From TrEMBL, chain A:
<dbReference type="GO" id="GO:0005886">
    <property type="term" value="C:plasma membrane"/>
</dbReference>
<keyword id="KW-0813">Transport</keyword>
<dbReference type="Pfam" id="PF08352">
    <property type="entry name" value="oligo_HPY"/>
</dbReference>
<dbReference type="Pfam" id="PF00005">
    <property type="entry name" value="ABC_tran"/>
</dbReference>
<dbReference type="GO" id="GO:0015833">
    <property type="term" value="P:peptide transport"/>
</dbReference>
<comment type="similarity">
    <text>Belongs to the ABC transporter superfamily.</text>
</comment>
<dbReference type="InterPro" id="IPR027417">
    <property type="entry name" value="P-loop_NTPase"/>
</dbReference>
<dbReference type="GO" id="GO:0016887">
    <property type="term" value="F:ATP hydrolysis activity"/>
</dbReference>
<dbReference type="InterPro" id="IPR013563">
    <property type="entry name" value="Oligopep_ABC_C"/>
</dbReference>
TrEMBL record, chain B:
<dbReference type="InterPro" id="IPR027417">
    <property type="entry name" value="P-loop_NTPase"/>
</dbReference>
<feature type="transmembrane region" description="Helical">
    <location>
        <begin position="246"/>
        <end position="264"/>
    </location>
</feature>
<keyword id="KW-0813">Transport</keyword>
<feature type="transmembrane region" description="Helical">
    <location>
        <begin position="188"/>
        <end position="209"/>
    </location>
</feature>
<dbReference type="GO" id="GO:0005524">
    <property type="term" value="F:ATP binding"/>
</dbReference>
<keyword id="KW-1003">Cell membrane</keyword>
<keyword id="KW-0067">ATP-binding</keyword>
<dbReference type="InterPro" id="IPR025966">
    <property type="entry name" value="OppC_N"/>
</dbReference>
<comment type="similarity">
    <text>Belongs to the ABC transporter superfamily.</text>
</comment>
Length: 318, 630
């Protein structure tokens, strides 16, 4: 297996209170330096709560946001958006809100043709053939092509979004909360479709979600993000069965499970740290029952335990 | 397009404006072929002829020129200049606005500050300066009027573009390999065009006035050429002695600008999707009730504090009737939590909003059934009665606390308002009570937090304020509509346990609306499952989750991924829920159901069962002895 996507010390910070001239008033570190490797054919799940930086990370990977520091390698080459056509053939993105990711004033055919025309320079006959092929693979009828986005349900629109990403023939797909806007019965349709496509077309997924159960159901490995940093990464079955970071355990315990009695899993201060005024040391320490002085002084690095696949950024892992 | 015209013509004022304008435009276009006198031929012997005199229908001006001819030629010129200026200003202004809005950052900053500077001049001064620099003449007046109006378009269009430039479809286009130019032309521009049209339709009248103003001052059309402004200017000296020469062009300006403005308003309303869907019609304070059948008799349901029987709510949109709720019967007792679960469009929220008449009317109409609070039917109750009960005895918690809290008031003041709406207490007392409430919902530092604004709080904290507000008057029933859907799981767990404690401590009845089986499983005593506007199954939570009777319930539960089951293929229900404006007879789930038989597609299927459990299915998964119908 080869590494198709490699992030090295990738970070993003946003200036706050910009001025026309001179330095901004403050800086928010949305993503702190992150190292990740995604291997050919795997699904890496990324979980985290709102504001943890998971969407910022995803948008950097597809070049929609420039990184502040660090580097991204795709198939061993550094990320290069100079030629949009070449770049779009390597990596694609499926958006969270299926309806708003489609231009309300374009027909589905126009939406589908854009990547074929711009990325693959196909003529119109070739485009029609290819669209028919893709639509068959995502179970959409071809008579949808001449309709406008508002005529579709969320599940159908999301399949159109997936179809557009497939049209680029990129081997890496970044899926940013692809099912969180959908109803459960439809959510499963889309997840299963994604699973089929992956094995059929030999794709690699980076699957971002806040829903632990969904991530667990589709991922080979999972990375847990908190306050812009990866706090734990490991095989999907281990992460939730035997979490080692206290935050991962908190997440797993908070997920509602039928039949488990209701209790608030934490009683202490529950707010995320203030991004403009981040705490020293470990960002989770204010919420952590195991926090010690050491946690306040230094931020822990991701370190492997006995099992090298499962790494955790904690001085006192579970 | 036909829909647009139909909407436009439904607005009578706009239609009238359009017709008047059409007549004027047709006259102006036909002017060269009409049998008119030469507008510039002077005849000083016949100056100031009255109207209806021979050969001069509208009389003559101070040089004896035919007023009718001058009026029509002048109108033609004024209209042409006004339209040209509008198109010129719209094109340039839109281009500037789109570029500023799309690129943002420093480009935006520099362009917009320039535009701001342009706007800081009084428009007439700016126009005068431009004409002074270029010299008088109609062409230069046109340039001046267009230039003066560019900032208006630029600012408007920039605002719209900023919103569009961050839309996901623009990102998607970028990833499809489109460059900036193509994105602007094919993604942004089509979405901006309606705004440009609206802005133009409302400013053309203004531009015609401004051109007339410049001509009036002698800076526009030069004699002997007539336009409406210069006609007014020349008539000024004879205003008292011969008012006709002023009235004729003045009245024409009035008619044109009035017609354009009325039509422009109509165009704006017809193009704006929000106004099209009826947002302009003022919603009624309570949902309209139109019950052809008398409400069903009260059933003795062991001490229910809130009981719905056969509630039906519909949306009447044009000729379509959406049966959002097609007969819901529910009851909740003090201290009990009833979960209503269903997918989007199943009618769960509309059911809850109907109770207090909170469904927007138009288009909502409650067409049948009753909602009894303590035996009193709330459907069709007087508005005053509803208002007294709203927030006092029956309170709501909504999904998005950021949208339900007022952004400009401190949360403490909003709580005080909720309390003083129903109780006559002093402000200080109410403030103290607000702090107590915030403490009850476990907001740390309640005293200082009461002085915070909603945007200063996190989502979880805001929802706690929402709950505190619902609790403000110690209600008997709280209807919570997806209160945790917008929250993170760790925060959701806290909110749920808070609600659970509150109902145990105070004997509160909770109607909890959600799409999440995990949440109902933890909080609710009983569940009602809704599909296509009807309850398809209800019963105790435990029983429904372990032995669902309706195929829909069983398969929906199977769809929910649960943590701890590892990597797997998930269950799915093929197909989509039906549209509630075209419901076929029989079971609404039948087209998606693998157990459906011919019998499922005919007639009404009753919600049948015994005791607490009931199911609306002919071939349920588990048999429920049906001795009584629920």
């Amino acid at each position: 297996m080869s590494d198709v996507l490699k992030l090295e010390r990738l970070s993003k910070s946003f200036p706050v209170g910009k001025r026309l001239f001179g330095a901004p008033k403050g800086v928010v570190h949305a993503v702190r330096p992150v190292d990740l490797v995604v291997q050919q054919g795997e699904t890496l799940g990324i979980v985290g709560e709102s504001g943890c930086g998971k969407s910022t990370l995803a948008r950097m990977l597809v070049g929609l946001l420039p990184a502040t520091t660090g580097r991204i390698e795709i198939n061993g080459e550094p990320l290069n958006t100079a030629d949009p056509a070449a770049f779009g053939r390597k990596i694609q993105y499926v958006f969270q809100d299926p309806i708003s990711s489609l231009n309300p004033r374009k027909t589905i055919r126009q939406v589908m043709e854009a990547p074929l025309k711009r990325l693959h320079r196909m003529d119109s006959a070739a485009r029609a053939r290819r669209i028919a092929e893709i639509f068959a693979s995502v179970n959409l009828r071809e008579d949808f092509l001449d309709r406008y986005p508002h005529e579709f349900s969320g599940g159908q629109a999301q399949r159109i979004g997936i179809a557009r990403a497939l049209a680029a023939e990129a081997k890496i797909l970044i899926l940013d909360e692809p099912v969180s806007a959908l109803d459960v019965s439809v959510q499963a349709q889309v997840l299963n479709l994604l699973g089929d496509l992956k094995s059929r077309l030999d794709l690699t997924y980076l699957f971002i979600s806040h829903d632990l159960a969904v991530v667990e159901a589709v991922s080979d490995r999972v990375a847990v993000l908190y306050f812009g940093s990866v706090v734990e990464i490991g095989p999907a079955e281990d992460i939730f069965r035997a979490p080692r970071h206290p935050y991962t355990r908190l997440l797993a315990q908070s997920a509602p499970v039928v039949g488990r009695p209701l209790r608030a899993p934490e009683g202490r201060e529950t707010e995320l740290p203030d991004p403009l005024n981040p705490p020293t040391g470990c960002a989770f320490r204010a919420r952590c029952p195991r926090a010690t002085e050491q946690c306040a002084a230094v931020a822990p690095d991701l370190t492997a335990g006995a099992d090298t696949d499962h790494r955790v950024a904690c001085f006192h892992p579970l | 397009m036909t829909q647009f015209l139909a909407l436009l013509l439904r607005n009578r004022l706009a239609a009238a404006g359009g017709i008047v304008l059409l007549v004027v435009v047709v006259l102006a276009v036909l002017t060269p072929v009409l049998p008119l006198a030469n507008p510039d031929a002077t005849d000083t012997a016949n100056r100031f002829q009255p109207a209806l005199s021979r050969a001069h229908l509208l009389g003559t001006d101070h040089l004896g020129r035919d007023l009718l001819s001058r009026l029509l030629w002048g109108t033609r010129l004024s209209l042409a200049v006004g339209f040209a200026a509008a198109i010129f200003a719209a094109t340039l202004g839109a281009a500037i606005g789109i570029i500023a809005g799309y690129f943002g950052g420093r480009t935006d900053n520099l362009i917009m500050r320039g535009v701001d500077m342009l706007m800081a001049f009084p428009y007439i001064l700016l126009a005068l300066a431009i004409v002074a620099a270029l010299g008088p003449g109609l062409g230069n007046a046109l340039i001046a009027v267009a230039a003066v109006n560019i900032p208006f378009f630029a600012r408007n269009i920039r605002g719209v573009t900023v919103g569009l430039a961050h839309k996901e479809f623009v990102d998607a286009a970028r990833l499809s390999g489109l460059g900036h130019g193509r994105i602007i032309l094919t993604e942004i521009l089509p979405n901006v065009v309606p705004v440009i049209v609206i802005a133009m339709s409302t400013t053309i009248g203004w531009m015609i006035l401004e051109t007339a103003g410049l001509s009036f001052l002698g800076l526009g059309s030069q004699p002997p050429q007539a336009d409406l402004g210069s006609m007014l200017g020349e008539a000024r000296s004879a205003l008292i002695t011969n008012p006709l020469t002023s009235i004729v062009p003045g009245a024409m300006i009035l008619v044109i600008v009035m017609g354009i403005n009325l039509l422009g308003d109509g165009v704006r309303d017809a193009l704006d999707p929000r106004l099209r869907s009826g947002a302009l019609t003022r919603p009624m304070p309570a949902t309209r009730v139109d019950r052809p059948t008398p409400p069903p008799a009260e059933t003795e349901e062991g001490g229910a504090v809130l009981a719905l029987s056969d509630l039906q709510t519909q949306f009447h949109v044009k000729k379509r009737v959406y049966k959002a709720v097609g007969g819901a019967s529910l009851a909740v007792r003090p201290g009990e939590c009833l979960g209503i679960i269903g997918e989007s469009g199943s009618g769960k929220s509309v059911t809850a909003l109907s109770v207090m008449g909170l469904v927007a009317s138009p288009p909502g109409v409650i067409t049948a059934g009753a909602a009894r609070y303590d035996g009193q039917d709330l459907i069709g109750a007087r508005y005053e009665t509803l208002r007294r009960l709203r927030g006092d005895r029956i309170a709501y918690i909504f999904q998005d606390p950021l949208a339900t809290l007022h952004p400009l008031y401190k949360v403490g003041d909003q709580l005080v308002e909720a309390i003083r709406c129903h109780r006559t207490v002093s402000k200080a007392e109410a403030w103290q009570r607000a702090i107590d409430l915030l403490k009850q919902v476990r907001i740390p530092n309640a005293e200082s937090r009461a002085s915070s604004f909603p945007h200063e709080m996190s989502g979880g904290m805001r929802q706690r304020v929402g709950i505190a507000m619902a609790m403000a008057n110690d209600p008997d029933v709280i209807i919570a509509d997806e209160p945790t859907t917008a929250l993170d799981v760790t925060v959701q767990a806290q909110i749920l346990s808070l609600l659970n404690d509150l109902r145990r401590e105070r004997g509160l009845a909770i109607v909890f609306i959600t799409h999440d089986f995990g949440v109902v499983g933890q909080l609710c005593d009983r569940i009602a499952v809704m599909y296509a506007g009807r309850i398809v199954e209800q019963g105790p939570t435990e029983a429904i989750l372990t032995t669902p009777a309706h195929p829909y319930t069983r398969r929906l539960i199977a769809c929910v991924p649960e943590l701890g089951e590892g990597r797997r293929k998930l269950e799915a229900i093929p197909g989509l829920p039906p549209a509630v404006d075209r419901l076929d007879p029989g079971c609404a789930f039948a087209p998606r159901c693998e157990k459906a038989r011919a019998a499922c597609l005919t007639g009404e299927i009753a919600l049948a069962g015994s005791g607490q459990r009931a199911v609306r299915c002919l071939f349920p998964e588990t048999e429920i002895p049906s001795e009584q119908s629920a």
